[in-house]
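INPUT
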Amino acid sequence: AQKVTQAQTEISVVEKEDVTLDCVYETRDTTYYLFWYKQPPSGELVFLIRRNSFDEQNEISGRYSWNFQKSTSSFNFTITASQVVDSAVYFCALSEAGYGGSQGNLIFGKGTKLSVKP
Amino acid sequence: GAGVSQSPSNKVTEKGKDVELRCDPISGHTALYWYRQRLGQGLEFLIYFQGNSAPDKSGLPSDRFSAERTGESVSTLTIQRTQQEDSAVYLCASRRGTRGDTQYFGPGTRLTVL
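OUTPUT
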């Protein structure tokens, strides 16, 4: 069965600290996609990154970086030098691209609420 | 182009009434999803449309929920005889045709059932 676990419910940091949000997933498919979305207080889900199961290269985008490790089924997200504007709920999600019944819908973790204090 | 739009942004209704929520996907996106987000929770999949194929309704929580989509255009989610537990934010997402492509979300409709 597919599942996404974000063990950290809430994290609070002070501005400029680095913070890592954990994401562990379960799937039987060999082809799948992993995503991170940001949900600021306004409520809209903002796409951050998409990764396919065949590409384990880590990725960096500005202050954001992602570490994908298939061996541990993890797709962790690090914010370097956090800012108050990073305060939001962050969701990790899994989409299976196999044809065993999945329609590509996203399976979400419960989210991690990040609070960055000035 | 424009993103996914949803209307209304807020809906307050009385228990037992029917409600209709609308989603306008990104132009050219053949796939459309509805999700529900209850307070403080993650998102739950409700229903999926792909072009003119039969929808995948496997996530609908009860037969009071239904949805329609004509071709690759607007979709409506209807909840009949609303209950208080239906209170949630209903989010719509669309993507291009390939599974695994990024889903882009609308701003959601916040439904409150009194």
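end of record. The longest strand of chain A covers residues 88-96.
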